[in-house]
Amino acid sequence: MAYDKENIFAKIIRGEIPCDKVYEDKYTLAFKDINPARPVHILVIPKGAYVSMDDFSAKASPEEQAAFIQAIGKVARDAGVSETGYRIIGNTGEEGHQEVMHLHVHVLGGAPAGPMVKRVEKL
Ligand code: AMP
Predict the structure, then answer these.
(1) Per DSSP, what are the bridge partners of residue 31?
(2) Considering only CA atoms, which residue is closest to atom 13 of ligand 1?
(3) What percent of the chain clears pLDDT 70, i.e. is strictly above it?
(4) Atom of ligand 1 nearest to the CA of 100
(5) What does each C-alpha distance from 26 to 2, 30, 45, 46, 96 come to in angstroms?
(6) Nearest CA to 102 among 40, 14, 41?
(7) Quick one: which of 39, 103, 111, 118 has the most CB atoms within 10 Å?
């Protein structure tokens, strides 16, 4: 899928719309989800134009990839959920139910995550 520069996270990166930022470095930005599903609900995104993890892992530089992983861990530590536990979610594409087409990882914590995912009838 081609990257759409007008997606809402691209606008956040460009500073065109605000976000509740919790972390930023040269390659990565993290901010609170506008519609939180848990007491801790943070989105971690690369600043580069990548739609998905498969896109990012194929095209991003080693520095960008390292920064992204490190930011996810730092955000979890700083939010205080390292000890209690948390869930990382990366919705991707149509069947993954991705709404914003810029790579993002959800970091959810502060309350039990519940079952991993509802099983489909037929596997
Ligand atoms: P998904 O693409 O389904 O993995 O989820 C997109 C997430 O982005 C949802 O949890 C939304 O609540 C969140 N979201 C959408 N717009 C904003 C925004 N302007 N600031 C923060 N979070 C947002």
Answers:
(1) 21, 43
(2) 33
(3) 100
(4) 2
(5) 24, 12, 12, 9, 28
(6) 14
(7) 103
Among 4, 6, 8, 107, which is best to mutate for testing ligand 1, by the most ligand atoms less than 8 A from CB? Answer: 8
Q: What's 8-109's CATH class? A: alpha beta
Please check the confidence at residue 6 and state whether its pLDDT lies above 90: yes
Asked if residue 91 has pLDDT above 90, the reply is: yes
Confidence check: pLDDT of 1 > 90: no
Q: Where are the domains of the chain?
A: 8-109
Task: Give residue-wise pLDDT tens across range 35-64.
Answer: 999 999 999 999 999 999 999 999 999 999
State yes or no: is 106 an active-site residue: no
35 CB less than 6 Å from ligand 1?
yes
